[in-house]
Amino acid sequence: MSIDTETAARVAKLARIKVEDSALPALAEEFNTILGFIEELNEVDVEGVEPMTSVTPMRLKRRADVVTEGDQQDKILANAPDAREGFFAVPKVVE
Asked: In this model, does residue 60 exceed pLDDT 80?
């Protein structure tokens, strides 16, 4: 798969990143380089290799799933630039 400047512009728009037209060829080339690395990773044989969370085998720390500091909705929403009906309000981004 190859990314052209038109696709790079569309990705930048979807990511809400302003990219000048003169920088689009370089961005497309960066995307192509990343996709090349991904293709290389897809060629690696990982049959029989167990997934790991660290380079050293260790069990992750666990804690009880209990509410420790609940009922702070008003305090948390006080930091929000826009809150409505007890929730964070964000601008619509889906086209």
From this structure: no
Within a domain: 24: yes
pLDDT tens profile 15-50: 999 999 999 999 999 999 999 999 999 999 989 988
Domain presence at residue 13: yes
Count other C-beta atoms under 10 Å from residue 44's C-beta.
7
Range of the domain at 31: 5-42
Does a structural domain hold residue 55?
no
Question: How would DSSP label each residue in 22-64?
Answer: GGHHHHHHHHHHHHHHHHHHHTS--TTPPP-SSSS--PPP---
